[in-house]
Amino acid sequence: MIISRSAATKSLTVLAGLLLAGSLAGCDAAAHVGAKVADAVHSAAASQAPGAGAGTAHPGEAAAAVAQLASIPVKGKAPKTGYSRGQFGPAWSDVDHNGCDTRNDMLRRDLTDVTTKPGTRDCVIASGKLADKYTGKTITFTRGENSADVQIDHIIPLSLAWQTGAQQISAGQRLQLANDPLNLMSADGPANQQKSDSSADAWLPANKGFRCEYVARQTAVKAKYKLWMTRPEHDAIAGILATCK
After folding, report:
1. Which is it for strands 125-131 and 112-116: parallel, antiparallel or unpaired?
2. How wide is the angle at C-alpha 205 spanned by C-alphas 226 and 207, nearest 5°?
3. Which of 119, 125, 128, 177 matches a 20 to 30 Å C-alpha distance to 12?
4. According to the 3-state scheme, what is the secondary structure of 171-199?
């Protein structure tokens, strides 16, 4: 999520107005504003070239994330009782109805030098290169035996989401959360496995240059889907964002 200076400035102006409007209009409006803030962060990120390497957050992005963080409730984790991947719908559903599943959509967005498998209407990604933001290294992706070298990570893990409010949102919202490009990123397979379902107080990317953007994205997802944070998670994110100004 590397945002140009002009995009960051524009985004901060829009976000500041949205946040102020939400604070004046009450809880329901503030929740709606949270979704708008997340969409603005995502739109700014999407305007950059796919596969761009890791970088630091610009001041506007960090300031917006700090303001957004203040709107997220802080409380303990709910029990994991009842959690399963199926609570978030079928894996990699085609929620945008473009004919391609979400995994391939994310590979197409994040990889460069992309080739597709013949006979799949250019849906199935056959190969490409990933500038991995978690490790800072370049990974060659080839579909087949080594497909797991590149995995699609949920920025907010689904298990963590379940324990911080996703039990209380609708099945349709959980399906959207699991397939939302804001919450998804192609990543180094071993790094993704190491992360597992950890929150920011337990795991951060080894590539320190990406940490500001990583926690800003986590904050945007939590706000968009009305999830809460634990105190350690909140404080870890606040500590990272404090270094991004």
Report:
1. antiparallel
2. 135
3. 177
4. HHHHHHHHHCHHHEEEEEHHHHHHHCCCC
